[in-house]
Design a protein that fits this description.
heterodimer, A: 117 residues, mainly beta, four-stranded antiparallel β-sheet, 50% strand, B: 109 residues, three-stranded antiparallel β-sheet
Amino acid sequence: EVQLVQSGPEVKKPGESLKISCKGSVNSFTTHWIGWVRQMPGKGLEWMGSIYPDDSDTLDSPSFQGQVTISADKSISTAYLQWSSLKASDTAMYYCARSDGYNFDHWGQGTLVTVSS
Amino acid sequence: EIVLTQSPGTLSLSPGERATLSCRASQSVGSSYLAWFQQKPGQAPRLLISGASSRATGIPDRFSGSGSGTDFTLTITRLEPEDFAVYYCQQYGGSPRYTFGQGTKLEIK
């Protein structure tokens, strides 16, 4: 069974850095694209970007380019989403999701990031 | 950028009724590249329909998808209490690579 397990909730101050993770349960993790999706409080879903863990090739959403860094460590079947300087507007639930090619067919449980002074 | 517009924003129905949710794209979307998701409060989204009309594994047959080009529909026949949730359509392949509709909230009347 495919499982994506995300790191726990985070509370940070504006200007701080953060790296959250998404660990896959099966070997096929490295040969599927992993996407990151933001959901701000009470709002819809926004695709941020995706990574192919086997070679770390990335696809970026123009809306998030330069705002976050997506990376992966295939040796431990883990993808990451990173901020160098958080803003209050980064407060949201962040999901990782595996793509079967076109669709996000398996999702992590979400990581809630709260940025507040 | 391909924009997906879902309607209605909120749909109020009773268990046992039929729900029809619409997703309209600003540009033509390949049928293989249109999906529907269900999201319940406090949960991650769940893939319902891929390729515009193919049910994902484990999805009951009361859920069906149809459409092509710029107009797509998710139909839920005989609503069950557990079907009341928010539904999103999503396209793949445009620019940006993935976009989601703003969602339709299906609520109990």
